[in-house]
Task: structure prediction
Amino acid sequence: MCKLIGLMKTSIKLEISTEEIDKLEEGFAAWARLGTCTLLIHGCLHLSFKFDLKEELKDLNLARCGDEVLENESIFENYPNYILRTPHHSNYVPDGDTRGQIGAYLVQVLGGQHNELALHLPRVMPLWGKMWIHGGNLIQSMFALRRVKSSSRNNSFVRYEVTYTMDNKPMMTTSYGRLDKILVCELGHQQCYKFLCNKVLILALIVPCKTNGQDASISIVAYKELMAPVVTDIWNIKAVVGQLLDKLAFGAVDGEFPELGNWSDNTSDTD
Result:
């Protein structure tokens, strides 16, 4: 039974190597031959005989096997490290608030007048629900999570980094927030877009956590409230972060979990 528990733990990892996939196939096949399947694992064990487990793991969103782009995924020329994944709304029309937030982001990048930049934005911006970051992280937006009727792991909180110039020196801020939407914005030929004319941008609508610049890779960062939504390029999203719940505040944990003390894990283990 300990070996079976080990197989199940491996199968729900966010990343699974080719060697681990081979071990999963052999391990599940051995358990199925024993003829001792229980209701909880019955389907999983017998699928190991009928299907290639590597393909099943892809469909379960639990691991990325190689660099192959699947039918329900899309990759864009200027974003080789980011793969967008369904759910997908190809005719999505952002509301006025979202268009204003995109305009505010473009002012930061290009300068110019907010109203002019927002005026010429495309009416339709395809909406995606999930994205892979090359190297492992699968991130789901709230758009995707709201479509799931059953409870699901909330991996919508992200770390993002924004670089700006102060006193002619580049500065970088690290922030954390909830990824609400992933939008594909195809800019037109208008001169106000300068070097971004006719470029395709993949933009993230993020609701920031009020963390006062603290770094969650060092220790748990508590926040009591979310701030007004902002838009940034998905290039600025670096990783998914864990979300914990305490009686007084929420917290974000970046990468490896530090000492949790009396914090309680509020994430679900089901996908």
In short: The first strand starts at residue 73 and ends at 75. Confidence is low (pLDDT under 50) at residues 34-42, 45-63, 256-271. The radius of gyration is 21 Å.
